Amino acid sequence: MKTFNEDTIAAISTPAGESGISIVRLSGKDALNIAKKIFKPLKDKKLEEAASFSTHFGFIVDPKNKEIIDEVIVGVMRAPSTYTREDIVELNCHGGPVPVRRTLELLLEGGARLAEPGEFTKRAFLNGRIDLAQAEAVIDVIKARTEEGLKAAVSQLKGNLSNKIKELAGALTGACVMIEANIEFPEEEIETTDLNGVKKNLINILKEINRLVATAESGKLLREGVKAAIVGRPNVGKSSLLNELLEEERAIVTHIPGTTRDIIEETINIEGIAFVLTDTAGIRASNDFVEKKGIERSLKSLEEADLLLVMFDGSTGLSKEDYEIMNLAAGKKVIIVVNKTDLKQKIDAAKTFKDKKAVNISIKNKTGLSQLKKAMVQAVREKSPAGRENIIITNTRHKHLLQKAGVAVERAIDSIKKGMSEEFPAVDIREALDHIGEITGRVSTDDILNKIFSNFCIGK
């Protein structure tokens, strides 16, 4: 078994605060020996002789003064069938901050070292239990905000993305071997490789790479949430819409135009997709200093949004400000929201917004809101295609590496088309292989690993 550190590490693996239970985790070759120094089992049984995947009831005892710190259940997991492929001991303490902190302190005094952020998962990677893409999926599982985001993270944790990357690497390696056979044995009595066949294989590989890259936008939205800004001129019902979608009185609503002066941001879950809703100040010409600042922030939110809910008052018709807002929204993903349909209408959404998705609502009568939610979900799911085998790229690092690999494959294809020496496409294919290898960690550096695992919490 490959090991990268002789230290035995310890950390609190559950969030700070009061709870029913808190877990202190040990990992390393001395995990059992360190734990037994402070654990007194209820029954006279040696912890170092405990079977793997067994639990034991007893007490945490300070070895210096024999003071009982907590009543605990200790779990024993032996290498290599553990999360880190090292011996692991988990001490399940009562969930108060004092007993769990004292337990950790005693373990550190007994010879353990405090784990760095993400060090347990880093050991799982370096000891070969998971690859780098799977390691990154662990933090995505922890931070998943919706069912869809969790589903994508679990898919990567299971190795679906890794298997696809290995498949691409295998195809690239095959192409490279075929080309280098011509380079290494030009005068031998062997059949030379047909470069047109290699070119066709590379074209297919490039299509697969581009197909994966095309899923990255959807993956980003699943991971980070969809920034959905509610924009429009004053008093069309933006704050009321935010409140209705959140099902709580989050924004102040009055009949006075310009009430909203600052950005209000809240997150909702619609059909497994996280929407980060932004209620913006009404966009109009204003001499009020505070309102002007709010409008500036509204314009910034409009630029940064993934989706715009552009609201109009259907009872007043379109104003000059409405047309200006539509011009500002040009080029963005837009849903037109025509409010106040409980009053006599002066806007025919179907005729006025032929090329846009339009939804009629009445916040007063609470109608049309379910149709709006469906339109929001549909707009996100149309944004980019799903990959084959439902593999979605959710990590920006993976996206950039695939793009670099794609560029290298394009160069290799171009070299073959131009009849250049075999050395040129061979170099490009090897470069593509290096970029692909960085995704799963086959090619890695300490800087890359430290940056990735520093995003984890201590204890994971």
Question: How would you describe what is shown here?
Answer:
The protein is of the alpha/beta class and 460 residues long. The chain folds into 3 domains: 9-124, Gyrase A, domain 2, CATH 3.30.1360.120; 136-215 and 390-441, Up-down Bundle (Four Helix Bundle (Hemerythrin (Met), subunit A)); 229-381, 3-Layer(aba) Sandwich (Rossmann fold). Helix content is 44%, strand content 18%. It contains 16 helices and 13 strands. It has helices at residues 31-36, 97-109, 119-126, 132-143, 147-157, 160-184, 195-214, 216-224, 238-246, 289-304, 320-328, 349-352, 369-381, 396-417, 423-440, 446-453; strands at residues 9-12, 19-27, 39-41, 54-61, 68-77, 88-95, 113-114, 226-231, 264-270, 273-279, 307-313, 334-339, 357-360. A 7-stranded mixed beta sheet has the order 3-4-5-6-2-1-7. A 6-stranded mixed beta sheet has the order 9-10-8-11-12-13, sandwiched between helices. Strand 12, helix 12 and strand 13 (357-360) form a beta-alpha-beta unit. Residues 251-262 have low confidence and may be disordered.
